[in-house]
Design goal:
This protein is 4% helix and 43% strand. It has 281 residues and is mostly beta strands. The strands form 4 sheets. It has a 10-stranded antiparallel beta sheet, with no helix packed on it. The longest helix has 6 residues. It is globular.
Length: 281
């Protein structure tokens, strides 16, 4: 690992192995702001022009001096279900902890939720990675049921392919498809087949989002590369009508998202959601 300054993101930790590079923000976030081949293009969207941000009266009142929330781009960890406190402005420097098996990036405790977030990265010899996402409840009270929510913001032109179950369950259902109010089921970017859902990023401003429960790896094709995401999918209670995978797109980017099951966290208790990334041509 070494530290570099990267574009508008300031100080970043550079992790390189097996011909692949990751950059993780240190002055803000954390965000895995870059992932790609050494000297190659970034598969993640970078919001250099600050096109995606959010301000709110609740945040202004309770977080004076913290600024507004910016997407920044890259890969981030969020809290689900999605309420206004999900948009906590992560604009402050973070802690970096190096260990023998990886590097952990730890945010300050969020004032409104009491959560401390962490992202631990373990890169393998081929440059692929295991990403351990963590919540720790540093507040005084038990949290409501919450899920760790990981969001990868992909560059323009991305195509997400999400497999659906083909298991024959007789009289019982074998798959679900959850739609948001602004989603047009006939949108040209969306293709629903019996065994998968495909969502493509195009120059169409109208947003579209959908979710489902999936127990197989998901893939995103972008910049001539394929990002394969593996994740745990235990049976349990999930947010958003039982979704552990969600995807969203507009005219700027495409997000591919995984979620843990819902869990209450007592004071001092932690939860982890681990995903595995494989990046290939």
């Amino acid at each position: 690992m070494e530290y570099i300054n990267y574009k508008k993101y300031g100080k970043c930790a550079k992790l390189s192995k097996g011909g692949k590079t990751m950059l993780v923000t240190v002055d803000i976030g954390p965000r895995i702001i870059f992932y790609g081949e050494d000297g190659g293009e970034n598969i993640f969207y970078e919001d250099i022009d600050d096109l995606i941000n959010k301000d709110d009266e609740y945040l202004q009142k309770n977080l004076v001096g913290k600024g507004i929330w910016h997407i920044y781009g890259g890969h981030r960890l969020w809290k689900s279900p999605e309420y206004i406190d999900t948009y906590y402005p992560d604009n402050e420097p973070i802690a970096v902890e190096e260990t023998d098996d990886g590097v952990t990036f730890v945010s300050p405790v969020e004032i409104t939720t009491g959560l401390k977030k962490s992202i631990k990265i373990k890169m393998s010899d081929d440059g692929n990675a295991i990403i351990e996402h963590g919540f720790t409840n540093c507040g005084e009270n038990v949290t409501p049921p919450i899920a760790l929510w990981t969001l990868s913001v992909m560059e323009k032109g991305a195509i997400a392919k999400i497999p659906l179950s083909t298991e024959d369950k007789g009289l019982l259902p074998n798959r679900n498809l959850v739609l948001w109010s602004y989603t047009d089921i006939k949108d040209e970017r969306l293709q629903i087949d019996n065994d998968c859902v495909t969502l493509s990023q195009k120059n169409i401003a109208r947003p579209i989002k959908l979710g489902m429960y999936v127990d197989q790896p998901i893939e995103v094709k972008v910049k001539g590369m394929t990002l394969r995401i593996e994740y745990p999918a235990p049976r349990g209670e999930y947010a958003d009508f039982c979704c552990n995978v969600e995807t969203y797109t507009n005219d700027i980017m495409l997000e591919i998202e995984t979620l843990s099951s819902l869990k209450e966290l007592k004071k001092g208790e932690s939860a982890v959601h681990t995903v595995k990334w494989s990046l290939t041509k």
